[in-house]
Write the structure tokens for this entry.
Amino acid sequence: MSRVCSICNKGQLSGNKVSHSNRKYRRSWGVNVQKVKVVNANGAVENAYVCTKCLKGGKVNRA
């Protein structure tokens, strides 16, 4: 379950890479997730994967 944000459940996206000659083939874009120590609701400290938008937005309490 790495590469998925534990706060907003943001995961990887997929789509086409298009070359100069307009050939298309599948590729994926990963999410910028960081492994951080988080204080959860009952006060325990645990490791979690959190995307950088949630970190910058203050949606997580870091330990």
Summary: The longest strand covers residues 33-39. Helices lie at 52-56. The chain has one helix and four strands. The domain at 13-56 is CATH 2.30.170 (Ribosomal Protein L24e; Chain: T;).
